[in-house]
Amino acid sequence: MGSKKRSSADSSEDVEKNHTDSFMKKKKKSKRDKMNADDSDTEAAAPPPGVASTGKDMEKKKKRKASDKERKRAALDNDGGEPPRRPKPPAAAVVSDSNSDGAAAASSSSSLPELPLSYFRDLASPEGSVREAAATSLVTRLQEIQKQYEMLPDKGSVDGGLMLEAEKNDGLDNCAPHLRYALRRLIRGVSSSRECARQGFALGLTLPVSLISSINVESLLKLISDSLSVSSSMKGQDVKECLLGRLFAYGALARSGRLVEDWKSDKDSQIIKEFTNALIGLAAKKRYLQEPAVHVLLDFVEKLPAEAVVTHVMEAPELHKWFEQATEAGNPDALLLALKLHEKISVDHPVFGKLLPVPFSSGKFFSADHLSVIVDCLKESTFCQPRVHSLWSVIREMLLPEAVVQGEDVSSAPSSSKKQKRNRKSNPIEEEATNNSRSFCEIFMEGTLLSSSHDRKHLAFDILLLLLPKLPANFVQHFLSLKFVQCLMDILSTKDSWLHKVATHFLTELIDWVKDDDTKRVAVTMALQKHSEGKFDNITRTKTVKDLAADFETEEGCTLFLQNLMNLFVDEQHVPEEPSSMKWALEPSSLNSDQSQTTDDNSEIGSNEEKDSIGTTVNSDVLKSWVIESLPGILKHAKLSPEAKLRVQKQILKFLAVQGLFVASLGTEVTSFELQEKFKWPKTATPTALCKMCIEQLQLLLSNSQKIENPIPKESGLEQPEDPVSYFMKFLSTLQSIPSVSLFRSLNEADEKAVKELQETESKLSKEERNCGLSADASKYHALRHLVVQLLLQILLHPGEFSEAASELSVCCDKAFSSSSTDGEGEADGEEEPAVMDVLVDTLLSLLPHSSAPMRSSIEQVFKYFCQDVTNDGLLRMLRVIKKDLKPARHQEDQDSEDLDDDEDCLAIEDEEEEEENEEMGETGESDDPTDDSETVTGVARMAVDREVPENSDDSDDSEEEEEDDDGMDDDAMFRMDTYLAQIFKEKRNQAGGETAQSQLVLFKLRVLSLLEIYLHENPGNPQVMTVYLNLAQALVNPSTAESSQQLLQRIWGIIQKKIFKARELFKDESIELSVLASLLEKNLKLAAKPFKSKKSGVDPSKKKQSAAWNRHRMIANLAQNSTYWVLRIIDSRKFSETELEKILDVFRSVLVGYFDSSKKSQIKVEFLEEVFRRRPWIAHQLFGFLLEKIVNPKVEYRRVEALELISEALRSLAPIGKETQEESKKKMKFHLVKLSHFIKELVTNMPEKQARRAKVRKFCGRVFRMVSSLKLTKSLLKGLGEDGQTACETALGHLFMNLKNTEED
């Protein structure tokens, strides 16, 4: 029995996988050995792949009908006596691959063409072209065989002689044996999972059925069912392959078209009903078969007339049963089939049952009642994930009909008129689609999917991605609903979530969908922020909303986004699609009266829009704050023309002014007939914090407009300038004149007066700017106007703090007008201008400590245009701030006091006899006598800031008495009192530790440094540059600067380096005497030579403190070195005589003495002195002899070796080698040759012990020898060395010196 099973299985595998004849002969040999009738029967009726044959007749009888059992039994009786004759037919009828081109074996059917097995093998090829060619060749050969077969006179003899594997009683009596074999083999082949066998064999089955009319479709349908039947002994994979084979076979039959042809020839035929039953019965067996079976049936139905669908397909019993159970079982494929069948027949057939509403319409289909019935069918479509079920493509077409999509395209066109938009809004198709989408989202998307499992949330994302290509912008609000956005945020905020990649992909596709459509971008941005309370980016840790808001590049897009933000702020729930429908748009009024009208919530005017928002929740303050912050950034990336940008700026400016500065005393709407606009406020009062935010953004908007605008002077007489400042001031005045509108906060008398003064000042400045035309004064007035507006807004933002500064600024502007008018008349007052500038500078400084960033920008712009007129007194007051320290020096630690003595005294203390001279030139010096810390700080403050402080002013321990020092000023000095420092001192007293005051002082210093940087940039050649340099250098070397802030230290050093040392123009001041420059040079050289001192403390300092101290020391040394180069540049530019320059040489002589005669006090770098010699060769020439004298006997031996490079550099500049300078160089070298010889003798006599230093000595001597030899002074050098020196040179230098002697002999 086991051998029977193996024989049957081998036969089945041979037929399915197209084995060669040699393998078939092996099986035949096995069958001859068995000589069993059951085996022969198994060979003739090879089972499909996966069917386990037992070799018993009783098992096969159970699988077939009673008639088939009798036919099988008769066939076995007839063939049982001749087992040896069974192998012959296959050899005669079906030719193997190796024998396909040769003649077939002799048989009774030799007159029919051969059927090569290669056709079946190629049908399983992965290449589509190979499969198509094989199918075409197969059907061509079968047609030829069938044609010859039909021409045979005696067909019975052929059938009797050729059994093959086709049974004679299978209903295919009119087919040739080859065709019957091919059909059976093709049917078994579609159940094979090898490569692309299913696709190829299905194609091979389709073509013969379609082209050969002799094939009986009913018999073929029965043959498919019998050949691919499922037995109880099959395992899971075998069952699956059989079922899939039947599905492909049914698909081939449906696509062949024979079913339709048979129905057309006989409309009473039941073949369509049987086919439908078979296909639906197959779909009911396994879930994975349902959707492909439905597609096969729908493909077949598309070819049928509606009549055949109604009378045959719809009457199939299996279809009735399937539809009845669909809603309870949750069958999405049944719903898909019902929708497509209804689309085909357009009739409400009772077979649909509960799947479709009666009468059918999209509105009823998406109604709440019907969705609750089919909800199980919809949500069970998740079983095919990650693929999206075909049902959703059909539902997409129902939700978004083509008319709605086309209407959206028309409405988004720029040329669409308002009338077209109104017609589109009243379109019943769009209204129905809107209602359907809203119902679908609320009931199914939110109520079913988003509240369920991960798979169903995944389905929700897939559905929306499927809808995106056709989704109109006004439908976004329904699909990106509150629950959907919250679900999206929850997933994106958790990277470990199972759906994180799904949500990320969805967000990427969503952003890609809106990139070319501003309307969709606005809708998506609004939905994301509205439902996340303005925190979508913060929660999801992405930049989605930020990137969306930055992509508006057209005026239409910016305006649309702006108007949606405005409506979102005032709680408008219906976001309009077009800018023209916004309430903030310009509405012409038929009234010419200069009055306004106020509307409350219950009035008729404007109530249509408000009635829609009744019962809705008010947007949170966080969302409103996002709206406010987004407004100024709308224009950041937009590429607009100046006119378009100005129009958008005006809209933003009006909204921020209305919402931030004013409130309506009656109702929430105000109509201004003068401006022809209607303004609306939120129903709930805007919090003060939001009002302040509006003012801050208004300041930022005006500041940005100042940076990007190019002010174009207007012609005189033009009353409405186009710049944002003038527009804002006019708008502000207009709203103030409306009785029902008031400021959001009440102001005291001083602030109200200041506001009025500033408004008047701006009006005057505007007129002066227009009158100036293209002159430089126009820019000054323009900058002042911006500062006036910023200060006005600052008063509203912080009442009670800036009224005094506003009054002073108004006074400065008034005096500026008067001075300019007197200049025009030729009566300029030379004494008034400095006073005005001092007041202006003092006012600007008083505004800096508590000003906003936009206001600081305006201050810097004003200072930029007026800095050329800044007086020496005003400049010193600014520098005084940089040097100010809240902590008196006497309270610092001892080590800080020592640093202050060593560092700050170098630049800050001047001798008493030079003090008066330095006051005239605005600089400071150093005192030779040491002073204590308090005297140092006091001296710096007196000399660098205010020379009018009396000498008997006493120092005090705390900052309160230090303020009293300033009280000793006269009336003019009191007028320019730095109230900004007083405010800081006051705050310091209110703080326990004073840390807040110190940090604010550092911030204040940084802001003043910005003004000084502007001053240096605009006035590179001004004599006051020296004053700025000295004071900044004093602040840099002050230890308290580094302790307070490293940022401040780096900022000061950056300004000195870039704006002074590397300035494009060297400052010119002929009044500075050489003695002063020499003194300054001496101080810098002392500072460069100052050694690094570690802190004297019992506890070892931390590495961080040591590193900070070392970095500060290097910065100070760098400052001293660069200052030296800079001072020497100044000295060279003055063209002093050689006699005068002796003072400079004396300074360097003292430096060299300190270097060679002290071991630790002088740590000056030889490289620095070498660079000085390289840059200023005249110093090297004059000091060469002195340098040779000092280097002979240094206090520390290693410094002699260190200074060798210095000697070499001096020699290179003193005696350059060249034909043109030969004689002059020789003369100079001969003058110093005696000292040089003596130095070389001492050097080689006392050779250093270390190898590296000995190498430096040899290198230096070799360089000198080559120079002496080239100048032909060898004899003089040897004479200067003497016998002892020559002996020492021979010993120490060897061949190097011997080569020199040989040169002398030659």
Automatic annotation (TrEMBL):
Residue spans of biased composition, Acidic residues class: 912-935, 951-971
Composition-biased stretches (Polar residues): 589-606
Region feature Disordered, mapped onto this chain: 1-111, 410-433, 588-614, 912-971
Chain intervals with Low complexity compositional bias: 91-111
Compositionally biased residues, Basic and acidic residues: 14-24, 67-76
Domain of life of the native organism: Eukaryota
Key words of the record: Nucleus
Keyword Nucleus applies: yes
Localization terms from the record: Nucleus
Family: Belongs to the MYBBP1A family.
Protein name (record): DNA polymerase V
Lineage: Eukaryota, Viridiplantae, Streptophyta, Embryophyta, Tracheophyta
